[in-house]
Structure formats: structure tokens, C-alpha cells
Amino acid sequence: xxxxxxxxxxxxxxPPAERALRFGELLGSHAQVLDLLDRAAALRGLAKRVREExxxxxxxxxxxxxxxxxxxxxxxxxxxxxxxxxxxxHDLHVPxxxxxxxxxxxxLEPVWVDDYRRSDLITHDFDVPISADDVRxxxxxxxxxxxxxxxxxxxxxxxxxxFSDRQLDTALEIAGTGALALQTASAAERQRQNAxxxxxxxxxxxxxxxxxxxxxxxxxELRDLRNSVGGEAAxxxxxxxSLQDQLAETAxxxxxxxxxxxxxxxxxxRLAAALTRDCAEFGKRTGISAQSVEIGPxxxxxxxxxxxxxxVAREALLNVEKHSSASSVLISSVALxxxxxxxxxDDGDGAGVRDSGGIGLRSAADRVGALGGTLSxxxxxxxxxxxRVWMPTP
Length: 394
Known about the structure:
The protein is 54% helix and 20% strand.
């Protein structure tokens, strides 16, 4: 009986190895769920699958952003580097009919070339970005579902070789699952947008009942405490007066925020629209969640000050993209102290300014200072970095 017990135990999987295997499976399932909810995550996962499962140097995922335009939004295996728009395959805009992807988008059939720059099957509008990454052979397949094209998948090699039937079949299989993932992600995005108004009202109600009541109690207790302090404690009285002023300012900002949440989104000004647009482009480009919100009513800046505020926000986003391991970014705008303040907060490792040397932000600080504003950068207590800029408004 003992020998049998020993033999049975010997055949059992090693518990740590079994747990590691289960953990890996859970991570894979989690990634698949994210792909169904987030379009950028779906595209990023597709590019990685193409590269790994087709055994190629580069995987690319292009999104159909109109009936006439395809944009290469995610990639795996490309060489990184700073360049002017259109000189690399990063976020390359491909009109229908042009290049390899444009032809696939037009004909809705797989196309491949053994040597891209020498092929007479395609136009050569994109030879510069193709050469920048030393691409030679390339295959592209459409991602289609229910007669609608969601995008195009690419597999590329840095040497002139032919693609096998297995590689083509694998790419087509990935494209089929990719089309479903993109359609599901788009539906989820529409659902989130439709639920925004109801969610804002729910949040306003909860904040009013919880935080609002707490602020009221704190104010009442603070007033009672101040009244109980004798005149001999002048320093304590001064500190209590200062705290009371801060609490009043917090309560005012809170009421404005609740009011904004409880009403439909106000028409966006030029700066607000630009920040929202930058967040959307940042999210598509990096896969990092980015949102822009206004806290209370915010007056529009004059063009000069608005331009500087926007430049600071963009520089902060660039630092997050280049140096931080953040998964989300929040840009907030608020009317404050006779001016306007914009904050860019991320949940990364706080390394943005330290690793980049802060050159861009130092230059932006000079522009801010010339207009009477201030700029500061702080490391958040719970990780990440916040860049704050305040600008007086005339």
C-alpha cells in the first residue's frame, strides 16, 4: 500500500509547475477578454499572433477607419525610432487601392509579394517606410465579418522569401477571429458611450450622498472646534482658519463637479476638444487608456495661452509614451485662482521626467512662465507622475 502511494505521488504534477501553468492559462483568457472589450488591445494582440504563429519578422494590424482609409494602428516587431509622419510604418495612413494593404482593402482578397520594392503587383507609394524597416516580403489578408471589412492583417519578412500555404491559412484564420474581436470591441465601445449619461447621473447622486455629506460634517466639526479654542492659541486658530478656507474651496469645487456630472456634456471649447482628440489618438497609438475631463465650468482661454496649455499636455503625454510603464492617463481641466489649470496624471513608475531629462517640459515651463503661469511635476504617492500647469486668464 505504501509503495502504491509513493508511485501515485510520483506521477502527480509538481504543484508549483501546475500552478504556473494554470496561471498562464488564466492570463491568456484574461487577454482574450480584454481583446473583446478594447479595440487597441485587440489589434495589438492580432499583430503579435501574426508574428508568432506565422513565424515572420513583423506583424501589423491595420484598422479600417473609413470606406477609403486604412491606418496601421498596432504592430509587433517593427524597429522603433523618431521620424516624421509617413516615413515609418508606425500609424501609416493607407488610402484604398494604394500599396499592398490598400489593394487588399479594395479587392478583399489576400495578396502577397516576394520582394515588395520590386513587385509590379502594387503601387509604390510607401517604399520609404517599407525601406526604413527593411521589409522585403509581405503578405496581407482582409479581416471581414458579415460582409464588412474591419481591417487588414500583414505578415512581413526582412528577406525576399515566398510564403507557404500554411502561413497563408494561419493568417486567414487569425483574420477571421480578429474581425469578430474588432466588431465586438466596437459594439462594447458604443455601449459604453451610450451608458455615459446614465453613469454620470448615478455618480453625481452617489457623490452627493456620500462625499457631500462628509464635507458638510467636516465643516460643522471644524467650526465647533474653532469656537472651542481660546484666544491664547493664536497659532492654532490661524491653522484652523486656513483649513476652513481650504475646505470651503474643496466644497465649492465638489459642487461644481457634481453639477457637471448631473448634466449633459457641455459643448467643448477649442482646448477641451483638442485635449479629447489628443487622448483618443494617444490611446490608439499606444494602447494606453487616456481620458480628458473638465471639472466644473471652464472658460475658454485665448489662443496664445490655450496653445501653451495644449503643448504642455502633449509633452506630458509624450513622456508617458516614451518613458513610463503606465496603463492609464487622465487629463483634467479646472478653473482655479483666476486662471485655468490642466493636470496630466499617469499610473506608471514615475520615471518620465527623470529618464528623459525633462528637456521638453523645461522648455514648456519657460513658455508658461513668460505668460505668468506656473508648471510643476510631482511623483504621486501611489505611483505615477502628475504634470500640472496653471495659466492666468485675462
